[in-house]
Amino acid sequence: MLCGIIVGFGGCENGDIQVKEVSLQIEDMDGISLNGKDNLEVLQVGIGRGERKNIVREERKEKYGEYLRMKREREVKKLRRERRLDSLCGVMGTLVFTVFCMMLFYH
Questions:
Q1: DSSP assignment string, 46-61
Q2: CA 65 to CA 52: how far, in whole Å?
Q3: What pLDDT was estimated at residue 52?
């Protein structure tokens, strides 16, 4: 997941800077931007827990390894889906071309 926070500042009053806009942008493991509702849910879970964990190095490595494994599995599923779609498009294109050619030769 990638997370970005954008803060827009406005004019100054009495030396105080005013915050005009705050934007939270989060992408999931596939690089798809989450919508506003999903962003708020992620933020709420993060704030709601409000705890800091002192994770030992081995546990961090294990969690990161699990994250990489899940990411690879998602990529493999995505590639399989794309290959199936490519095959289907090829078959449909060939079928349409064949029917078109048959219509030209028999009429």
A1: HHHH-------HHHHH
A2: 21
A3: 66
